[in-house]
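Priority: medium. Attachment 1 of 2:
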């Protein structure tokens, strides 16, 4: 019998229950995977609390990214065999020792990338890929503001965007997090607990402001993020860790310089197999080249997922966090 984290009711970290769970046998087009490492992301908190309802109701297994080994393949599966090292991103189900996954969601992990790195980079790294290569095509000379620079996505984003030639401005909430972000591609850092980030962006850019702002914080930063954009700038709002953005008058975008606003998700960008493969390949390429390094800053046993969530919500974590089955 395998085990998994199951959620039977919405609530705090204590609703994450480690219990027996039988994944079953892989059907047509499916693969049974034994996990070796599981990524932890803030979206997992949203599912746990009910902010993002689980599509199939209760109970459910949270978690959207993992790496592991193929145990068994179902009928109709080609290109995969038992023993292959794989990684994937799905909506739910990764907080488990074993999981049935659709074969077309799996990618082979290349030599040179560990299972832990793959588990910690798939959702976060492919999020960075679509954000800076497809949502807004970051190019040399662009000035970029990124909130929560010391988070898991932020540390990948800073390295990759800097590699592309952008000037990177980041916000973080402590001297330690600022130091960490500075070591991962950010050229200018703002302590949002002590400084007004809008004024600091104005100072750093000498009044020119930013071409694009990437904001996963939401309610606390939304209005200020708009004020950091130059004329025809773009605000990419891709999360809401501080709470949902309240309704606002769309005319504000015109008043502040005909700004662009988008609310993208990874699952809208990587829909087809071709999109998934190209996104994963771009991520693996920058990882193998050394342009982006994935460091695991926190490890928890799968059975201790509740503590991982508590630390994540209390902002006690930095960078990449994984669960070990």
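Attachment 2 of 2:
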């Amino acid at each position: 019998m395998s085990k998994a984290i199951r959620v039977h009711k919405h609530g705090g970290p204590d609703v994450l229950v480690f219990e027996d769970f039988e994944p079953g046998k892989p059907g047509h087009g499916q693969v049974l995977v034994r996990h070796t490492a599981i990524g932890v992301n803030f979206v997992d908190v949203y599912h746990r609390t009910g902010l993002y309802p689980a599509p199939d109701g209760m109970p459910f297994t949270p978690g959207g990214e993992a790496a592991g080994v193929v145990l068994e393949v179902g009928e109709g599966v080609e290109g995969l065999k038992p023993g292959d090292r794989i990684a994937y991103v799905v909506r739910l189900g990764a907080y488990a020792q074993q999981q049935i996954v659709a074969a077309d969601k799996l990618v082979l992990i290349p030599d040179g990338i560990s299972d832990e790195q793959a588990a910690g980079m798939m959702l976060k790294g492919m999020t960075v890929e679509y954000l800076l290569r497809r949502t807004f095509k970051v190019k040399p000379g662009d000035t970029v503001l990124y909130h929560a620079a010391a988070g898991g996505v932020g540390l990948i984003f800073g390295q990759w965007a800097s590699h592309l030639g952008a000037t990177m401005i980041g916000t973080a909430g402590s001297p330690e997090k600022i130091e960490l972000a500075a070591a991962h591609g950010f050229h200018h850092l703002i302590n949002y607990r002590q400084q007004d980030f809008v004024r600091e962006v104005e100072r750093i850019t000498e009044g020119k402001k930013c071409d694009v702002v990437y904001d996963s914080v939401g309610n606390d930063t939304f209005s200020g993020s708009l004020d950091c954009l130059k004329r025809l700038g773009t605000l990419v709002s891709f999360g809401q860790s501080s709470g949902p953005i309240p309704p606002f008058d769309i005319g504000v975008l015109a008043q502040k310089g005909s700004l662009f606003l988008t609310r993208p998700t990874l699952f809208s960008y990587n829909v087809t197999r071709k999109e998934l493969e190209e996104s994963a390949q771009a991520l693996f390429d920058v990882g193998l080249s050394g342009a982006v390094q994935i460091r695991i800053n926190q490890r928890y046993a799968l059975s201790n997922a509740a503590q991982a969530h508590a630390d994540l919500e209390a902002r006690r974590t930095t960078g990449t966090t994984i669960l070990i089955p």
